[in-house]
Amino acid sequence: MSSNDADFRRRIRSDVPHSARVWNAWLGGKDNYPVDRDLADAVSAAYPQMVDIARASRAFQIRAVRYLAGLGVRQFLDVGTGLPVENSTHEVAQSIVPQARIVYVDNDPIVLVHAAALLTSAPDGRTEYVEADLSETDQVVDAAARTLDLSEPVAVLLLSTLGHLSPADGIDVVQRYMSRMPSGSYLVLCDTVKTPATLAAEEAYGSGDNPPYLVREPEEITGCAEGLELVEPGFVSIAQWRPTDEQPVLVDQWGLVARKP
Predict the structure, then answer these.
(1) Model pTM score
(2) pLDDT digits over 217-230, tens only?
(3) Cα distance between residue 250 and residue 254, in whole Å
(4) Is the dihedral of CA 12, 14, 19, 21 positive or negative?
(5) Coil, helix or strand at residue 102
(6) Residues 170, 220 contacting (CB under 8 angstroms)
(7) Beta bridge partners of 259
(8) Domain limits at 83?
């Protein structure tokens, strides 16, 4: 084993919960360890809606990507992508626009292990992976520009991700991403809103010896889209954003899709 391999293995710790693996556990995946499942169960015990939120977030992502690809958007920047799951961004986008280009961004070593799955592109399209922190906006965009044409519209996805930053930093980071995008680009954004129940979930998550995940006031989410044009139905519970179910299960995660004029 090389020194680089040894360092990489040390970064993937099975004795400490990991956000990507905990999320994977809520989605019913198998890419997690007992410590991740223990924390996932603790959060779900404090906040039973957590599994519904994880599933609703994934469904919102699929609907939003399908909608934008249907408009002809051919480029997607998926920041904080997490572990690969069925109907990932490139699969949905390229099923509608085979030429679509997708760049995934994450700084979690466990995600890098699975990057090969993320890089499986349709023959006419292209999919790449950038290892970087979501707050390193210029580094991310500069790397993404090797795959994406930044003179053409790009859809920027930040889904269940901003809680890793303070509310003020989150707004700043999103606005910095969108400032680098051309007119006609889109922002797809969702995160958990602050309620007594979600604050209990935040506290339970923070007990897992891992960085906290901070829930938001509604204006701390909509503030990220300042200067952008909200797509109907606007800022709503993600289950209500162009739902495919007649009676969607409402969740405490709200989101929006917005266009840069």
Answers:
(1) 0.92
(2) 999 999 999 999 99
(3) 10
(4) positive
(5) strand
(6) yes
(7) 186, 229
(8) 49-259
